[in-house]
Amino acid sequence: MRSESLIVSRPEDSPVGGLTRPPSLPGPPGVTLPPLGGLTLPQPRSDPGAMTSVAPLTHSGGVTLPGPGLRADDVLDAVAGLVDKSVLCREPGPGGVRYRMLDTLRQYGLEQLRRTVGDEGAVRRRQRDWMLRWVEECERGWFGPGQPETVARLRADRDNLRAALDFSLSIPGEALAGLRLAGTLWFYWHACGAPREGLYWLDRALAANPEPTPERARGLWVAGLLAAATQDFPRGRRHARDALALARVLGDAAEAAHAEYVIGVLRLFGDDLPGALRHFETTVARGPVPGQHLSVVGLDQVELACALGFLGEADRAVEVCERALGLCERHGEQWVRSYVLRMLALAHSVRRDWARAERHAREALRLKLAVHDVIGIALTLDLLASIAGERGAHRHAAVLLGGADRVWADIDAARWGARTLNAARRDSEERACRALGRDAFERAHRRGGSLGLAELVGHALQEPARPHPGESRVPQDDTAVRLTRRETEVARLVAEGLANQQIADRLVIARRTAEGHVERILSKLGFSNRSQIAAWVTAQR
User: Fold this and answer.
1) Which residues lie in Pro residues bias regions (predicted)?
2) Residue 263 confidence (pLDDT)
3) Which strand ranges, in their side-by-side order, compose the sheet holding 96-101?
């Protein structure tokens, strides 16, 4: 079983009609069995008369309970009946209750759905449209309270997001909605540790949408930002500049401001500190433009403080951070706040106020774990290792450095080639080695590298490890999955677009053997189609 989800949506989203329940499959009288992997029921609405229906959200297709204008009680009774018959399995999850369905039932329902021409496409389109509306709502509320809960739900619904994106980018006439969805998810790709997967979907979406649209302007700067996070700086610059040019042609000041942020970040990553300083001084002095996301407004100030800190202007950096903290506090925001705190830690490190620097860095790390900000965690662990070494806690510094190196390995082991980051890392290692000796340093470093993310953060905070919200109830990170050598070969060939027979020919194995490998890969990764394997392979590179 897998934990993909359905949701409760408004009745206007419900398709008319349904499939006939086969006699061999139990269920409440008159209820169509949805061929889906799961379902999320949000908290009840304040309006007890609100009408709802069950709408599909998984990549396996699906149907809803038949008929328009369903009452909420009818839907809940039907779902309860399916649970009683063990057709659905009920379990707690982020954002409400989630349901799971056996693969055989999902597959049966999908086959039934495909009997009527156009039904599968209509249901998948409704699923995509619902996901798009929900993601847009998440983005509008991102700079505010509830970020950890939003992240937990998005991570739990990764398969639903992938299904919506794959449908949009595989079916003629749907590509613009796919680009809109991929671009709207910028905050998830960037803030929550998924830059490579985001880049995979954006590459497909941009290729399918060459027209000069606001969606393309958004997709270009997001792709530029994600390319920068994976150290493809030339590609990042090209996308960001193209986004800025297109936004100006379209008269879209907000997307132009977003593109300018990416251009400044690339200067910072590329060690052009004076250029980055001038850039962010200009954007911060200009202030927000209409439609600009407040997260990017806050990040402009973060990057200005970063440039000031690296250039040794600690007092100015602290002033900028205090203004940015005020913005975050007024909105109850945590993610940008975590970066502001990291910049405060950097500024106090420049002042050699190690106690205050460590306090700010630890609080930044705690907030970053709450939203699974892998890049931010790696950056902050580096800073904490440096602070620990300066305070004489050399073994602790070595453990933190080992953990930081492991986290960076999943992002970019070269730390984007940035001189500032690599110099700080090298200084931390040399200081710890002098104090401990090479053998003791290596042992402590290996220990840090063996810790899971929550354990590592717990060690840095000197607290017991606490799992990421929802982690025990949703699939683990794809990077934790281990394929055999042969399965890895097959997965790469699937990503190249080869069919099973072509894979068999390439590896000189039987077609049945190739099919078995693909099935095991799907099972291990919790996927249901080959395009998801391709996305996963791309994300591992």
Assistant:
1) 23-32
2) 98
3) 53-55, 7-9, 38-41, 96-101, 88-93
Q: How far apart are CA 379 and CA 362, in angstroms?
A: 12
Quick: pLDDT tens for 430-462. Answer: 999 999 999 999 999 999 999 988 999 999 998
Q: Given the DSSP bridges, would you call strands 88-93 and 96-101 parallel, antiparallel or unpaired?
A: antiparallel
List phi, psi (to 5°) of 13: -85, -10
For residue 209, how far is the Cα from the chain centroid? 23
Domains in the chain, CATH or no CATH each: 74-111 (no CATH), 273-350 (no CATH), 373-465 (no CATH), 485-539 (1.10.10.10)
d(CA 416, CA 411): 9
Tracing tokens 């052009």 back to the chain, one arrives at 272
Round to whole Å and give the CA distance between 329 and 24: 57
Q: Which residue has the higher pLDDT, 119 or 515?
A: 119
d(CA 62, CA 33): 9
For 89, list phi and psi in degrees, rounded to 5.
Answer: -110, 125
pLDDT digits (tens, 9 = 90+) for 9-62: 333 333 323 333 333 343 333 334 333 333 443 333 333 222 223 333 343 333
> Considering only CA atoms, which of 272, 371, 363 is closest in space to residue 321?
363
For residues 399-419, average pLDDT? 91
Other C-beta atoms lying within 10 Å of the C-beta of residue 354: 18
pLDDT at 70: 67
Q: Helix crossing, 158-170 with 147-156: angle to 10°? A: 60
Tens-digit pLDDT profile for residues 364-373: 999 999 999 9
Place of tokens 């099919």: 515
Nearest to 219 by CA among 200, 206, 232: 206
Query: What CA dihedral angle connects 513, 514, 515 and 521, to 10 degrees?
Result: 110
Mean pLDDT of 248-266: 98
Residue recorded with tokens 């205090």? 322
**pLDDT given at position 49:** 28
